[in-house]
Amino acid sequence: MQETVFVTGGAGFIGSNFILRQLAQNSSSILNLDKLTYAGNLRNLDAIASDNRYEFVHGDIGDRALVRRLLQDRTPHAVVHFAAESHVDRSIRGPDDFIRTNVDGTFALLEEARAYYENLREQPRQNFRFLHVSTDEVYGSLAPADPPFSERTPYAPNSPYAASKAASDHLVRAYHHTYGLPTLTTNCSNNYGPFQFPEKLIPLMILNARDRKPLPVYGDGQNVRDWLYVEDHCAAIATVLARGRVGETYNIGGWNEKRNLDIVYLICDLVDEIEGRSGAARRELITFVKDRPGHDRRYAMDASKIERELGWRPRETFETGIRKTVLWYLENAAWVKEVTSGSYRQWIETHYSS
């Protein structure tokens, strides 16, 4: 009997990349439950839409009756939970959706997964896994000389988004320790790559540079992040799902600490190279804007545990991954046009008006 992976939020950036990878490299079937909020896009999955191993269901993880029915009818051997509101800026302007999806939604999903798991027969119970995909932002901010975040770093979230993900991480941990649900948690650094909604730094800068629009950089641009190419992240998730120790957390990072301003410089140079320059260099478009409230100064990930225990390391350097990413956005104008419609433009104009 073919095994099924139940993916939540599979029409989003990381979830869709994970599904494409799984169907290309694995014989399992995929059940994708997605609410299709502004950042969910079924066009991301056009390549496998007719694959008989793939099924899409439009729905909310908070709809417990729907989740219960899907679990009972499709009998998955794993749940991989991507569904989340994830943009810090949006969480500052309106945290309600983040609590509703990231906390309440995860709780609802855990409750239904627990009930499903407890009713499985012995062999399926041994094989079942609940993998929760989280973020490095739950750990807070690092000073320049601080060691990177490890799995033992205390939580110190500084934005409503980070706090909502920290809450969901704690719920997942509690459901393992209290109820025995076989959970796995991954905390990743900043992702980039194909299909990322262009409110995030890298796609926003690529598209604005392409169109010679201002490139808004928060504060002084010295904030540091660790960057992880999305396909490397998806490979890590698949590795943890297959071989991770139940109840454990694994940090996933790219070993690529970069200042935001240096990333924007590199994107400008790549777009100049690929699109050609007519006039001033695109670096001249950089515009410094008022910093976001509570902006964490530095994130860095120690991903040695997943390397040591499971043998995973990222394949892409930042230089190879960012070139692939810039090319993808420049070569996929139809996808970009569709996702950058009226509601997106209104958000950008409202948020960066100052």
Which stretches are poorly predicted, pLDDT < 50 over at least 5 residues? Answer: none
Coarse morphology = globular
Radius of gyration: 20 Å
CATH fold annotation of the domain at 4-192 and 227-257 and 294-316: Rossmann fold
| Topology, number of strands | 12
Could you tell me the mean pLDDT? 94
Strand content: 15-25%
From the helix content, strand content and strand pairing, which structural class follows? alpha/beta
Strand neighbour order, sheet with most strands: 3-2-1-4-5-6-10
In whole angstroms, how far apart are the ends?
A: 57 Å
CATH superfamily of the domain at 4-192 and 227-257 and 294-316: NAD(P)-binding Rossmann-like Domain
Question: What is the CATH C-level name of the domain at 4-192 and 227-257 and 294-316?
Answer: Alpha Beta
Helical fraction equals 40-55%
Q: Quick one: biggest sheet?
A: 7 strands, parallel
Order of helices and strands: EHEEHEHHHEHEEHEEHEEHEHHHH
CATH architecture label of the domain at 4-192 and 227-257 and 294-316:
3-Layer(aba) Sandwich
Per DSSP, the total helix count is: 13
